[in-house]
Write a structure and sequence with these properties.
This protein has 357 residues and is α+β, with helices and mostly antiparallel strands. Among the domains are: 3-168; 252-332, 2-Layer Sandwich (Alpha-Beta Plaits). The chain has helices spanning 3-38, 43-71, 79-112, 121-150, 154-166, 169-194, 234-239, 266-278, 311-332, and strands at 202-205, 208-215, 219-224, 229-233, 243-244, 252-260, 288-295, 300-308. A five-stranded antiparallel sheet has the order 4-3-2-1-5. It has a three-stranded antiparallel sheet with strand order 6-8-7, with helices on one face. A hairpin with a 4-residue loop joins strand 7 and strand 8. Helix 1 (3-38) runs antiparallel to helix 2, helix 3 runs antiparallel to helix 4 (121-150) and helix 8 crosses helix 9.
Length: 357
C-alpha cells in the first residue's frame, strides 16, 4: 500500500469516524432527554443519569471509534497504535463510569438517611457503611482499570510475567511494602461490616476525647474537644482497644466527687441536687443521686451520679452542678469542708515528770 492509498484510507476512516461520532452524539442527546422525561418522577434514577452522563457519552463514542478502527485493514499504517490508544481510553472511560456510578449511589443513600436528626444512630450506621464501602469499591475500580490498561502493553505484561516467575526478593519487598495498604483496606471493610466505630461516634483514643469526623480508605479523622484533629490508621481500631461512648446509644452517666467533713449532713445536699437537676435541660431525668463512696482520715467522699442524653451535655451538667453544690455548701455549711484535726499535748507536764535541764 503506497502513500496515496494510505492517505485515502485514513481520510475515509476519519470521515467515517466523524460521521459516526456525530450520530452517536445526536442519538445520545435524544436518548438521554427521553430517559430523563421517563424517570423525572424518580429521584434516584434521575440522579444516577445526571452523574453518569459525561462518562457514558465518552464511553459510547470510544466504542464506536474502536469498531471503526477494527473495520480498517490490519496492515494499514499506524492502525495498531491507534487501536491500542483507543482501547486504553476505553478502559479509562469505563473506570470513570464505574467510579461515578458508585459515588452517585453513595450520595443518594446518604441523602436518604440524613444524620442531622435527633435520633441518628441508624443514620450514622448507614453513613459509615456507605462511605467506607463506596470508597473501597472506587479504589478497587481504579486499581482494576489501571491494571487492565497496563496489561495492554506487551512490555509491561512481560515484566509482570518475569517478576511472577522469579518470585524472589522482589516479591517479598513488594509484599512488605503493600502490607500497610492492604491491612488498612481490609480493616476498612471490617469496620464497614462490623462497625466498631461510626461517623459522629464519641471515642477515647490514646487518652484523647473526640468525635469521629471522617472515615477514609486508610485512616480515621477524630475531631478533638479543643479543635485539634487526631489522625488514626484504620488498622489501629482493629488491633487496639478503645472506648466508644455512643456504640449503642449516646446516653451517658457522669460523676462528680466532693470531699466534705464527717459531720456534714448529706440529705440537704441531695435535695439541692434534685432541685438543680430539675431546672437544668442537660439532665435527661434518668439518674440523679448522691452516695458516700469513700472515707479517709480527714474527710468523707461524696459521689454525685447524673445522666444526660449525650457526652457534651453531661460535661456541661457536671460543671454546672459542681459549681452550684460547692456554693451551697459554702453558703449553708461553711465549716463542713475537710478539716485537719490535731491533738496537741498539754503545756504543763504531768506531776512527777522531771524537767529537762
Amino acid at each position: 500500500m503506497n502513500y496515496g492509498q494510505v492517505l485515502d484510507t485514513w481520510m475515509t476512516l476519519a470521515v467515517s469516524a466523524a460521521a459516526a461520532l456525530l450520530l452517536v452524539a445526536i442519538a445520545f442527546r435524544i436518548g438521554w432527554r427521553i430517559g430523563r422525561r421517563l424517570v423525572r418522577s424518580r429521584v434516584i434514577a434521575l440522579a444516577l443519569m445526571g452523574a453518569t452522563e459525561e462518562p457514558a457519552r465518552l464511553l459510547g463514542c470510544l466504542v464506536v471509534l474502536q469498531a471503526i478502527w477494527h473495520a480498517a485493514p490490519d496492515h494499514l499504517y499506524s492502525i495498531g497504535p491507534v487501536r491500542h490508544l483507543t482501547a486504553v481510553c476505553l478502559i479509562g472511560a469505563a473506570t470513570w463510569l464505574v467510579v461515578r456510578l458508585v459515588s452517585a449511589s453513595s450520595e443518594i443513600v446518604l441523602r436518604h438517611y440524613p444524620a442531622d436528626v435527633k435520633d441518628n444512630l441508624n443514620a450514622r450506621r448507614i453513613h459509615t457503611q456507605t462511605r467506607v464501602l463506596s470508597r473501597t469499591l472506587m479504589a478497587f475500580a481504579m486499581v482494576f482499570g489501571l491494571a487492565s490498561a497496563l496489561m495492554t502493553f506487551p512490555s509491561v505484561r512481560q515484566i509482570g510475567t518475569g517478576l511472577l516467575a522469579s518470585a524472589g526478593l522482589a516479591g517479598l519487598v513488594v509484599g512488605f511494602a503493600a502490607k500497610p495498604l492492604l491491612g488498612n483496606l481490609l480493616a476498612g471493610l471490617q469496620i464497614a461490616l462490623t462497625q466498631p466505630i461510626r461517623l459522629d461516634d464519641v471515642v477515647i483514643v490514646e487518652g484523647e476525647w473526640g468525635k469521629v469526623e471522617e472515615i477514609n480508605g486508610s485512616y480515621v479523622v477524630l475531631a478533638l474537644w479543643d479543635q485539634r484533629r487526631l489522625i488514626v490508621p484504620l488498622q489501629w481500631f482493629i488491633e487496639h482497644p478503645f472506648q466508644n461512648w455512643t456504640r449503642t446509644s449516646s446516653q451517658i452517666l457522669g460523676t462528680i466527687f466532693l470531699w466534705v467533713d464527717f459531720r456534714f449532713p448529706v440529705e440537704p445536699l441531695r435535695e439541692e441536687l434534685a432541685t438543680l437537676c430539675d431546672r437544668n435541660t442537660d439532665w435527661d431525668r434518668r439518674v440523679c443521686g448522691i452516695q458516700v463512696t469513700d472515707a479517709s482520715d480527714r474527710a468523707m467522699q461524696l459521689r454525685i451520679l447524673v445522666s444526660s442524653a449525650s457526652a457534651s451535655q453531661n460535661w456541661d451538667l457536671r460543671c454546672f452542678l459542681r459549681e452550684r453544690l460547692i456554693q451551697f455548701i459554702a453558703r449553708n455549711y461553711p465549716t463542713q469542708f475537710p478539716q485537719l484535726r490535731m491533738d496537741s499535748p498539754d503545756a504543763t507536764p504531768p506531776s512527777g515528770t522531771p524537767l529537762a535541764g
